[in-house]
Amino acid sequence: MLAATITQNTALWYASRATGVVSLILLSLVVILGVLVNRQARLPGLPSFAVTGLHRSLSLLSVVFIAVHIITAIVDPFVSIRAVAIFIPFTSAYQAFWLGLGAVAFDLILALIITGLARARMSRRLWRAIHWLAYLAWPVALVHGIGASPDLRGGGLRALAIACGLAVGGAVIWRIAGTIREVPRTERAAYTLAKTERGAGHPARSRGHDTHPEDGPSR
Predict the structure, then answer these.
(1) 8 is in which domain, residue-wise?
(2) Alpha carbon of residue 75 to chain centroid
(3) What is the per-residue pLDDT across 7-33, written as a single tens digit (0 to 9) for each?
(4) From CA 66, how far away is CA 70, in angstroms rounded?
(5) pLDDT (tens digit, 9 = 90+) per residue, 49-71?
(6) Number of domains making up the chain
(7) Taking a C-beta distance cutoff of 8 angstroms, is the pair 43, 51 a contact?
């Protein structure tokens, strides 16, 4: 009977930590995929709809595991975490700082979900700003996990956390390097000027010929 009671009492503790680890892995995959995907939502060897579908599926799955992680942490009898501390950072009586970081990450994810649902009613610039801001949820969640869970500070789980960090960092470096390679440094000024002229509309081209405005009409 005692063994059964201990198992029941500790089930939520293990569930909270296990779903936290899975959430970290899924969030890492979501961030990596989001960073690597270019503006046309394409990856080598995959059509755009497959990449978009994969990214959406991983995002939804990560939200499910995050929800289970939060619920099991609240109802766990070994700790006392109020539901309000999940949304308002640094208000928890238990591990206020580390759980506060978790609340920050969760609020950023909520902002991404809400703006995703309301995307049709938002300007593209505002939506993109919030979307990129939501990527901050990953490093904040990583620090939260390391600080709140001793499991991530040693053994195989520490190696897993390091691997997630290296993978995301590698994806960011690869994306930046790819962006730099797209336009050689010697051609960047001309490239930028050409884009500006195309956006504003060149006065000579608007009349259907390439003569300078001061040259007079062509004969």
Answers:
(1) 2-203
(2) 28
(3) 666 888 889 999 999 999 999 999 988
(4) 6
(5) 777 788 889 989 999 999 999 99
(6) 1
(7) yes
